[in-house]
Request: fold
Amino acid sequence: MKIRNRLLGLVLCLCALVCILCVSASAADGHVHPVCGAEHQDIGDHTGECRDLTWIEVTQADVDSHSGALPLESGKSYYLGENISVKYKITIDGTVNLCLNGHTITKTTESDSSKGVVVVQPNSQFTLCDCNTGGTITHKDGVTGRGVRVGSSNAIVPQASFI
Reply:
């Protein structure tokens, strides 16, 4: 009986060791960022090197300081530091990168069903990613609209790019 208990204990210890080694190996693999292509050890960490990009954190305080709007400047890269709520559409004019980072953008005011939470203007490029799973772009209950509206329905107007 003692030998059987010792063998069972040894097998359980070996299984635990194998599990620990597997988790350590997968964590060392890192995360290839979908925008800059650099490998990061910490998923969702936008503070390290991401090639030539500098990431700017966006919080609810940024939205509140702009009366419910979220201005995103062309040529810059942003990531959500927390869930945010906006009153007005987020307009992309130029080239903008946004990582949801596992968080949610919620539009709180009514809009035409053809309008979006994010509207990508003609001749603009918007890259959206989510380094942590679960990020969403949505409307609060009872508010209609699209998540991301790209370009114009007018064939003469230059089109936009949404990656």
The helical segments are 2-28, 60-64. The first strand starts at residue 31 and ends at 32. Residues 2-28 form the longest helix (27 residues). The chain has two helices and 13 strands.
